[in-house]
Amino acid sequence: MPDIDRTVDIEITAAPQGVTAAIPLAGHASEHWLSVFRGLAAHRMQTPSEAEQREDRTWILVRLPMASTDLDAGATLDAVSALISEVNGTEQKFQSGAAQTEAAIRGWWARQQR
């Protein structure tokens, strides 16, 4: 599961509508991970946050309003970090459940071949 890659620098882009922080994740996220992140971000984040697949890795884009204070920006980025951890937990449960179901299916199939 992807987590924040602290060995890669964050990208910051300023525009008239606000500042975007692009947070690098280690590797690429699965489609399920992306779907869960997008759904939770849409409902929980007060500022627009999205996941973007790029050639090198997945990035989390967080848009902050101009003149955000250290406290506001830090709280928002902490919330995104917590959301990434939550999505990783959800993905872990999903993968575990899928693995259990796969094992059950393979067991059934093995019994059919006797």
Task: Report on this structure.
The protein is of the alpha+beta class and 114 residues long. The chain has a single domain (11-112), classed as Yope Regulator, Chain: A (2-Layer Sandwich). The chain has 2 helices and 4 strands. The protein has helices spanning 31-44, 70-112, and strands at residues 11-15, 18-24, 49-53, 58-64. Strands 1-2-4-3 form a 4-stranded antiparallel sheet. Strand 1 and strand 2 (18-24) form a beta hairpin. The model has no long low-confidence stretch (mean pLDDT 90).
Number of helices: 2
Structural class comes to alpha+beta
Beta-strand residue percentage: 15-25%
Secondary-structure element sequence? EEHEEH
How many domains is the backbone divided into? 1
Major sheet size, sense and barrel closure: 4 strands, antiparallel
Q: Into which percent range does the helicity of residues fall?
A: 40-55%
The CATH class assignment is Alpha Beta
CATH 2nd-level architecture? 2-Layer Sandwich
The geometry reads as elongated
The third-level CATH topology is: Yope Regulator, Chain: A
Salient structural properties:
114 residues, alpha+beta, four-stranded antiparallel β-sheet
Q: Secondary structure elements and their pairing?
A:
Layout: E1 11-15, E2 18-24, H1 31-44, E3 49-53, E4 58-64, H2 70-112
Helix pairs in contact: 1-2
Short description, anyone?
This protein is of the alpha+beta class and 114 residues long. Helix content is 50%, strand content 21%. It has helices at 31-44, 70-112; strands at residues 11-15, 18-24, 49-53, 58-64.
